[in-house]
Amino acid sequence: MSEELIARFIAEAQRSAPAGSIAPLKRRSFGNSAEMADVLIGLIAAGDKTGTFSVPAEFRDRPEAAPLVGDHFLVTRFDGRPALLYRVTEVETLPFEAIAQRHVECEGPQLRDVAAWRAVHWDYWTGILALVGERPSLEMPVIFQRFHVLHVADDADSRGRNAS
Predict the structure, then answer these.
(1) ∠ CA(150), CA(144), CA(61), 5° rounding?
(2) Cβ proximity of 122 and 35 under 8 Å
(3) Contact criterion met (CB below 8 Å) for 51 and 42
(4) Which pLDDT tens digit goes with each residue over 102-134?
């Protein structure tokens, strides 16, 4: 059912996209739980979150999934249903300790303070990095990206209600 919903979502997004193709299309999800994914997707859909951060270890097994300027990402909910489509407009790799106010201003309202951003992401990446035998450091590279939302699934499709 998710692949059928995704195919419909992509077709709808392509019809409503400004001139140009949305291919190739990368897929991703946000957060480490369904609840967190829904919160982050809500912030993005509302325009309150216009960028995100990752560490290279997240792409170790799939380097082609790393963000590049111009990439289109299909964001899925935690269960695989389509939620939104965005285009990457900026990518910068810098050390964790170099993340500044200009970077975190793209985050949701609660993480627009550098100290708050660092605390949350340090804890999150501690778990991610432990899975590959690494530990966070102030010098660890962080991939910062800004994006522009191109298409948001309507509530029925994205939440599965009334979907055929």
Answers:
(1) 90
(2) no
(3) no
(4) 999 999 999 999 999 999 999 999 999 999 999
Output the CATH code of domain 2-159: 3.10.400.10
What are the boundaries of each domain within the chain?
2-159
**Position 160 confidence tier, pLDDT thresholds 50, 70, 90:** very low
In three-state form (DSSP H/G/I as H, E/B as E, the rest C), the secondary structure along the chain is CHHHHHHHHHHHHHHHCCCCCCCCEEEEECCCCHHHHHHHHHHHHCCCCCEEEECHHHHCCCHHHCCCCCCEEEEECCCCCEEEEEEEEEEEEEEHHHCCHHHHCCCCHHHCCHHHHHHHHHHHHHHHHHCCCCCCCCCCEEEEEEEEEEEECCHHHHHCCCCC
Q: How far apart are CA 9 and CA 25, in angstroms?
A: 12
CB 72 within 8 A of CB 85: yes
